[in-house]
Automatic annotation (TrEMBL):
Protein name per Swiss-Prot or TrEMBL: BTB domain-containing protein
Alphabetized Pfam families for the sequence: BTB
Organism: Panaeolus cyanescens
InterPro entries in the cross-refs: BTB/POZ_dom (IPR000210), SKP1/BTB/POZ_sf (IPR011333)
Domain BTB span(s) in chain numbering: 40-115
Length: 324
């Protein structure tokens, strides 16, 4: 959308400027109250808001902006208030967040370690979108690291999250999936989908944040999780097998899971949960160590299979997609 060169306002205090955005369409441009610097060297216009900022700052953080001005500008290049001007098709709120980060090195400190998931997503989503689009690698990686504290991509990270008893609210969980897809951060998707499998089906179906294809992945994934909980990670709860060499009748000492507990697990499977009370099984030491080893190996197998349950390939595929 072409810009025409516009002279500066008659008064430097006048924050309202007129700019023609395309032929025959008038739009009133407003100077951003914070990011319109008198010594700024370029003007970026986002949703009719002008940001006059420093080319050197943009170029230091963004390969895209660096390349934009590395080449000599043609004589007909757009000019606004005496500076090169570019119209960007982004959200002004997102762009404000990125400008705040670029000009305030302590901005991320405002996000407290105990911040809720909703605040975390709101805080980083705009920065992640803009940093991804304009190749701001350091900012993008910072955002990804923050997200992965809540949405791990390793079993060790999963165990750390579970040990903290992190609270996940359904309306907050579902926000991360479209954001991760939009910004190419697939490493957070397996755990996000895993959590979504604990949302009641009726609630999941009416949710507007998830696409229908992602809802279908949640439903199919729930069945996969239930199957591996029964047969891989927690198989001893459903069909106990004594350790080789056990001289006791341990198989008779293990209580069988009741149908009500079984139904609860089916509706909300949790195959990555560590079994909490081994002593309650009332089996010999040899059998206990045997099933603990099976449980540990089973959880590792489930973690490796997790992306495939939601159509995401393997962890290696995900890492390649995200350019790890």
């Amino acid at each position: 959308m072409p810009l025409r060169s516009v002279p500066p306002p008659s008064s430097p205090m006048d924050s309202k400027l007129n700019l023609h955005l395309g032929i025959g369409s008038d739009a009133k441009i407003t100077r951003h109250p914070e990011f319109y610097f008198a010594d700024g060297s370029v003007v970026l216009i986002v949703e009719k808001v002008a940001f006059r900022v420093h080319q050197s700052v943009l170029s230091r953080h963004s390969e895209v902006f660096k390349g934009m001005w590395d080449m000599p500008q043609p004589p007909e290049a757009e000019v606004y208030d005496g500076c090169p001007a570019v119209v960007l098709l982004d959200s002004v709120r997102d762009f404000e967040d990125v400008m705040t980060v670029l000009y305030d090195s302590f901005y991320f400190d405002k996000l407290k370690p105990d911040s809720g998931l909703s605040n975390l997503i709101t805080f980083i989503s705009g920065i992640l979108r803009i940093s991804t689009k304009y190749s701001m690698v350091q900012l993008r990686n910072k955002c990804i690291n923050i997200i992965q504290e809540k949405f791990p991509s390793t079993l060790a990270g999963c165990d750390a999250v579970l040990s903290k008893h992190t609270q996940y609210i359904p309306s907050e969980i579902v926000r991360i999936i479209p954001l991760a897809r939009e910004t190419n951060v697939p490493k957070v998707l397996p755990w996000a989908f895993y959590l979504c499998c604990h949302i009641e089906v009726d609630e999941l179906m009416v949710n507007t944040a998830l696409s229908w294809s992602d809802k279908a992945l949640c439903l199919a994934g729930k069945e996969h999780l239930w199957k591996v909980q029964k047969t891989v990670s927690h198989s001893f709860m459903f069909e106990f097998k004594q350790a080789p060499g056990c001289a006791n009748s341990c198989i008779r000492a293990v209580p069988q899971i009741g149908w009500q507990d079984c139904e609860t697990l089916r509706r909300s499977p949790h195959p990555l949960e560590e079994y909490p009370d081994w002593n309650s099984l009332r089996v010999c030491v040899k059998c206990r160590e045997h099933i603990k080893a099976q449980h540990r190996e089973g959880r590792e197998k489930v973690w490796q299979m997790l992306p495939g349950f939601f159509g995401l390939g393997t962890w290696e595929d995900i890492c390649n997609d995200q350019n790890c």
